[in-house]
Design goal:
Layout: E1 9-14, H1 21-39, E2 45-46, H2 48-51, H3 58-67, E3 69-76, H4 78-81, H5 84-94, E4 104-107, E5 110-113, E6 115-119, E7 137-139, E8 141-143, E9 149-151, E10 153-155, E11 162-164, H6 166-174
Parallel strand pairs: 1-2, 1-3, 3-6, 6-7, 10-11
Antiparallel strand pairs: 4-5, 8-9
Helix pairs in contact: 1-6
Length: about 190
């Protein structure tokens, strides 16, 4: 059962299959571990590597899962930028809101969008910064003095090539039950 009320899934992870699936799985494990510590139980995460069964209509399954999700996490990379399917997933999520303001949830320390950008690898000319620029993001790469980008491995500590995923847990945990709520008490996404 999802932690966020009225939603089947707490988090939907959208990523390019051209990316390193080991990195994607490590990110998911680190995120779940951090949220487990903050929330006291595991969030329900949807990722196609784990949630599609053989013979299942995967396009319908993905669409239905996105529509039943509280938070959309996009793992940005050049492969993600040019993926028609990733664009379809984003559109499926954002089409459930009248505008971007409806995607916001009020937190103790301000507000956050229900769309989170995880920048695994920057886009050419840093175009990822312009992509849904209002949404919060977290970079999992470092750029050295000569302009060379190096991906970081999701983990518990900064430095040594790892990145602290705990920066993202606060948004998810703090907004927990308010993510699917609004002033009327009905969720504009889940319609409950």
């Amino acid at each position: 059962m999802a932690y966020v009320t009225h939603c089947q899934y707490d988090i939907f992870i959208s990523y390019s299959h051209k990316d390193d699936l080991t990195w994607i799985a490590a990110f998911e494990r680190a995120l779940v571990q951090e949220l487990r510590g903050k929330l006291g139980n595991d969030p329900v995460v949807w990722r196609d590597e784990e949630n599609i069964r053989l013979g299942q209509n995967w396009k319908d399954t993905i669409r239905e899962s996105i529509q039943a999700t509280a938070v959309f996490v996009a793992i940005l990379s050049p492969g993600y930028q040019f993926s028609d399917w990733c664009m379809h997933e984003r559109k499926c999520f954002t089409d459930h809101f009248k505008d971007t303001a409806e995607m916001k949830v009020v937190l103790k320390a301000g507000s956050a969008y229900r769309f989170l950008k995880i920048v695994k690898s920057p886009w050419e000319d840093d175009a990822h910064r312009e992509f849904f620029s209002a949404a919060q993001d977290m970079e999992f790469f470092v750029r050295d003095a000569s302009g060379i980008d190096r991906e970081l491995v999701p983990g518990a500590h900064r430095g040594g090539g790892t990145s602290d995923i705990s920066d993202t847990k606060g948004h998810a945990a703090e907004g927990r039950n308010r993510i699917c709520g609004n002033a009327s008490g009905r969720c504009p996404r889940c319609h409950q």
